[in-house]
Amino acid sequence: MTPKDDSLAGVDHGRRNFLKSTGVVGVAASVISPSAEAQSGPAALGPGAVPVRLNVNGRQLDLMLEPRVTLLDALRMRADLTGNKRGCDRGACGACTMLVDGRPVYSCSTLAIAVQGKQIRNVDGLANGDTLHPVQAAFCEKDALMCGFCTPGFIMASVGLLEKHPNATAEQIRKGLDGNICRCGTFPRIFEAVSSVTGGQRA
């Protein structure tokens, strides 16, 4: 058995006393168990909710929104218009595409407060009662969807395209929908569906 080294015992004792005297133990304890103030986090900065008036699908919506709220969140969370989906949330996949004054926009990266006074349309407003919009009907007829998550964005982009080019060519369709992604790979059926709608009606 190795005899105890008195010099080492003295060094150990000195280290313990040093830690106590410098308050390191107290600091470590505060890191492990943060105060109630630290747990609650810093106070929120920035303006609170302000009145925002939106014209959506021909209907006026008066909402109280923080200026940072996107059009997608305003409609999904505050107006119960949940047709358009949140995909990438980065303005890259197109699942959230809506029409603002007839132009397709990524609603996940468009501030609601910035589109006041404009005509906003999302997929919830396309059908007329039980009658589907021609583009919606074409997507069903041509089986142009699989999981369906990207479909509302594709439909809105297609409606915007066909309103601008009623007899769109194959090249115009490809270009008009190049901002939308279908991860299931149904692009051929989607293009077929859109090309079957001419002059606002299915061929």
What do these coordinates show?
It is built from 8 helices and 7 strands. The strands form 2 sheets. The protein has a 5-stranded mixed beta sheet, sandwiched between helices. A two-stranded antiparallel sheet has the order 6-7. The longest helix has 17 residues, at 6-22. The protein has helices at residues 6-22, 24-32, 36-40, 71-78, 134-141, 151-164, 170-176, 187-195; strands spanning 50-56, 59-65, 97-100, 103-106, 119-121, 197-198, 201-202.
Topology:
Elements: H1 6-22, H2 24-32, H3 36-40, E1 50-56, E2 59-65, H4 71-78, E3 97-100, E4 103-106, E5 119-121, H5 134-141, H6 151-164, H7 170-176, H8 187-195, E6 197-198, E7 201-202
Parallel strand pairs: 1-5
Antiparallel strand pairs: 1-2, 3-4, 3-5, 6-7
Helix pairs in contact: 5-8
Keywords:
203 residues; alpha+beta; Ubiquitin-like (UB roll); DNA polymerase, domain 1; 2 domains; five-stranded mixed sheet; two-stranded antiparallel sheet; 8 helices; globular; 2 iron, 2 sulfur cluster binding; EC 1.3.7.9; iron-sulfur; oxidoreductase
Give a quick rundown of the structure.
This protein is α+β, with helices and mostly antiparallel strands.
Rg on CA atoms, Å: 29 Å
Structure annotation, total helices: 8
Strand order of the largest sheet: 2-1-5-3-4
Report the mean per-residue pLDDT as an integer: 86
**Proportion in β-strands:** 5-15%
Helix-strand sequence: HHHEEHEEEHHHHEE
CATH topology of the largest domain: DNA polymerase, domain 1
Number of strands: 7
Strand pairing plus helix content: what structural class?
Answer: alpha+beta
How many domains? The number is 2
